[in-house]
Protein 1
Amino acid sequence: LEDAAGEVAWRAGQAPQDPGMPLPGPGEDTLLCTARGLLKKMQTRVMVGDRVHLSGIDWTSLRGSVDGVHPRSSVLHEPRVANVSRLLLVFSLAAPPFDPGPATRYLVAGEAAGLDLSVVLNKADLVEAAEAQALVDEVTSWGYNVILASTETGVGLAEMADAMAGHTAVLAGPSGGGKSSLINALARRATSAAGVDPTPVEQAVGEVSPRIGRGRHTTRNVTLLPLGAGAVVDTPGFNQPGLEGVPPDRLASFFPEIRARGERACAFANCRHLGEPGCRVAQPPWARYQHYVALLEERVAAEREEAARA
Ligand code: GDP
Ligand code: ZN
């Protein structure tokens, strides 16, 4: 679902199909719809990513109306998209080099958002294979699914597409990691796999929708790029994650290493795992423990500041 001047364009494959409803052919996958009065009266704003119910479809003029919005499984605010179910955190292996500290901040923000996440280590073409593998192994040891990728060689694109299949996915990560390049490469790959001329992709990423027949807003709309059975949001998600929504007491639950140690290593509820007697979460030492401690101190200080201000 795209937002276009208060009207709604629907893309095939992203809404439940009514049995018997004619399937749009290639290049005819967008309907221009208006939101019905009932929807407006209920003050339900249609969001990008919504699954909607359509009525009054006219396949000749490719128009219809939206008369219902299905319950949302998630609402992401940055960018504003409904039903995002998959997050791919993109880091480059080189230029800029991979750095576990800042990467951990993204991972915690992603976990706090409650999204299923995978880590993409991009720009594999810029480092030796052994170095790339060592970093893949390191991040895997933290407890994440890791995809080694490169937009130069195309490695990892199929794996990324698999990870996104059937999902509405968002790519996030530090600027310069290659998110936009990967989104473009994935969209290009999806259209060529579908045997469609690659130009529709450029149109989808571009500013003018030929069927709607006019330019979109000058302020950029969030758009979903169809990708197999799923879709990828065309704009990167958070690229400077604040951790305001992460209370110190919940931080530990966003580290797979701590989750894996679970009750074996610590018997206390509300333990901060800072070496309290009887807590063995820090033993034996694990790679990101120092980053956990640093983020914990940051969150504790921030909470104290907030309390003082209140
Ligand atoms: P974003 O800020 O995360 O969206 O990153 P961009 O997609 O804008 O990419 C940042 C820079 O990295 C650009 O100059 C890209 O051409 C380059 N880049 C992206 N992916 C790769 C890759 O796999 N290999 C190499 N060598 N460069 C890449
Ligand atoms: Zn503990």
Protein 2
Amino acid sequence: MKLDATDLRYITSDEFRVLTAVEMGSKNHEVVPTSLIAQISGLRNGGVNKLIGNLAKRNLVSKMQNSKYDGYRLTYGGYDYLAMRALSKRDSMYSVGNQIGVGKESDIYIVANSEGEEMVLKLHRLGRVSFRAIKEKRDYLGKRKSASWMYMSRLAAQKEWAFMKVLYDNGFPVPKPIDQARHCILMGYIDAYPLRQVAELPSPGRLYSKLMDLIVRFANAGLIHGDFNEFNILVLRETGEPIVIDFPQMVSTSHENAEWYFNRDVECIRTFFRRRYQYESVLYPKFSRVLRECPSGEEFRLDVMVAASGFGNKEMKVLEEYINANKDREEESNEVDSSEETDGDEGESEEDGEGNFDDDHDIQKGDEKLEEDAVGDRNGQSLR
Ligand code: ADP
Ligand code: MG
């Protein structure tokens, strides 16, 4: 979806009131009745109709014909608008540039602040895929009537923000967290290639070791990434150092399935290195061992720090259920074609992963061969 920065400048304050009223009304109405919008915004009924018509023309809200009443829904565009306006009011961002990523559940844009410094805006889009089906299947919403995409997307952003902050503050190689609003996160731009695009490495063993060390470092701090794969590892263009991104699915090492998540992260890296670089090592971390040998004990529990930071267990649980339900559905729909690509190298050694993972090769600066990838130009568009 294209972000339209022009609206940020040209919306009137009354239109903004109405848009905010639609957002507030959505907390307990799937379709917000026009009368409620008028009531919340504190504007007279007739006036509201015109204003809301303007908003609908710009696709910030959309009109819904309900059997009982007519009303409006906030669109993705409307929610994006509210978030970006908040970020721009706080002077966190000033202009929007090109889209650099479209995930299934996020859109990624290059943006800039008023000094022209480039940053990355990640807009979470949970519920874009098959949200209704999940809603029917699961009962995790408690008293909430509708698990709106808005609510889930905001939770994902809040969680990602909480983790990114605590990781960054504790010296982990993650993007710099800059600001968060609604379903959006603003973070430092990383000049890097996703590992997925790195066709060859002069010394795969060295990066492999670093990644395994990172998994262990996470676990020593009470955390498991949960989606540690070639898409979520960026390799710095200049130094070849890995930067880890994408945290909405992180779990604590105290999670009941922690070992399973941990092993899956480890396996993702092993499989990728085997297939892509024909690199295989008998050394890889074991969960029980990592926990046993965790040097820091209680005082360095980032999972506990995140919980204390306001993103609590309840929110964590709601999001986790959503993510799992979504995964189940994906697997169901993938089952038909999942038989492709087996490596036939299953009988590998289960030797103990003792010692460190370093070998002494060097990544030569900027020497990775890359598959073709067009990184778009970044013509910014001013917001104000
Ligand atoms: P998703 O949840 O959709 O997987 P990610 O956070 O993994 O979203 O980001 C998707 C893609 O956007 C990444 O693979 C990467 O190419 C790019 N990207 C994300 N964050 C940054 C960043 N801080 N700097 C540069 N590129 C980024
Ligand atoms: Mg990702």
